[in-house]
Amino acid sequence: MSLAADNRGRFGADAMSMWGPAGESGRGGDPTIPLPMREMPGHAPAGHARVVATGTATGRRYDPRAYQRPAPGRRRHWALRLLWRLAAAALALALLAALAFGGLMALTPSAGNAPALTQAQDLAHHVAYPGPPVPARFADSLVATEDWRFYSEPGIDLFAVARVGFGFVLGHGIGGGATLYQQLAKLLYTQGRSSPVDEAKQVALAVKLWMTYSHGQVLQMYADVAYFGNGFYGVAAASCGYFGVEPADLSWPQAAMLAGMVQGPSLDDPLTHPANARTREAHVLGRLVATGRLTQAQASAALAIPLPALTAQAGHGCSS
After folding, report:
1. Are 242 and 262 in contact (CB under 8 A)?
2. pLDDT for position 16
3. Among 45, 50, 160, 240, whose Cα sits 20 to 30 Å from the Cα of 146?
């Protein structure tokens, strides 16, 4: 055997692994570096792309099919941790709210003097105390438009409080959502003010009013001190002043009109702003339909009565 043949026999295998043919790696005879075992196919670490040889000078590329997703158990563990954190945050907020409410309850006065405050306001406005019983039609209209959960809530409407809280976080202010208990507290204890501090006090006082008085007593005090525009304080003065009838004789459209005035008594005065008064009347009648107190036919019939017919006796007062 010749020396050349012997050399080919001895070095042929090594030459095949160390030298690539021309056209694949550039110049014939360029070396191809063997890959380490940890980068060979089938040896990729979990969660990483597998590295495979390409036969080029670059030596390797990533195989996207070899990516391994996190185990389902790890995903469940992460979700449980997130839920626990959310629950802990909610519990912390609830505890802070409870502590703040407890502080308000301790700092605000007792509601036991509410009748005395009502009497004092009636005397200041030259209104008889106590006023006549609250007419059922006016009470239904007031509850439907101002506080339809009045008979089931604990002085405050928790749903409205949550809605107002979200609105405050989003920068929409803190107005709205006041129950009749809160409105009465505003009239009796904070002189009609609506600052954040005053509204916080009204929340605590509303709960105290709910704990101390019946629904009928709260409605009676509210009807005695509410302002209805045109110098009329109390539902009795407003009924006689605008319609010339006693509160017990209010028709549905008249009762709805009075109930609609409590939020804007001067702007919704039927004598000076009849269009506004008519709009509020329609709103209250719609709420009476929505709460099931009136049918749509009854509400439509009430709204069909012309405003001049409702106020024809304005200024004449009541016969009694």
Report:
1. no
2. 42
3. 240
Using alpha carbons, select from 304, 292, 222, 296 the residue that is nearest to residue 258.
222
Q: How confident is the model at residue 99, as a pLDDT?
A: 64
How many CB atoms sit inside 10 A of residue 199's CB? 19
Q: What is the pTM of this model?
A: 0.69
Nearest to 246 by CA among 256, 236, 233, 231: 236
Place of tokens 């839920």: 83
Which residue ranges make up each domain of the chain?
Answer: 110-310
Backbone φ, ψ for residue 293 (5° rounding): -80, -35
Q: Kindly report the CATH class assigned to 110-310.
A: mainly alpha
Contact criterion met (CB below 8 Å) for 238 and 227: no
User: What six digits make up the tokens of 289?
Assistant: 């339909």
Helices (H), the chain: 3-18, 72-107, 114-124, 136-146, 158-169, 180-189, 196-212, 215-225, 235-243, 252-260, 274-290, 296-303, 307-310
* Closest C-alpha to 124, from 234, 245, 241: 234
Cβ distance 269 to 238 under 8 Å? Answer: no
Q: ∠ CA 28-34-38 to the nearest 5 degrees?
A: 155
Contact 261, 280 (CB under 8 A): yes
Mean pLDDT by 10 residues, the chain (320 residues): 47 44 45 50 48 49 56 72 78 66 73 95 94 96 96 87 61 68 95 85 94 97 96 96 96 97 94 96 97 97 96 84
Query: What does each C-alpha distance from 78 to 69, 90, 91, 150 come to in angstroms?
Result: 14, 19, 20, 44
CB contact set of 169 (below 8 Å; sequence gap of 6+): none
Give the CA radius of gyration of the chain.
40
Please report where in the chains the tokens 């709210």 appear, as a residue: 97
Task: Identify the pLDDT of residue 79.
Answer: 78
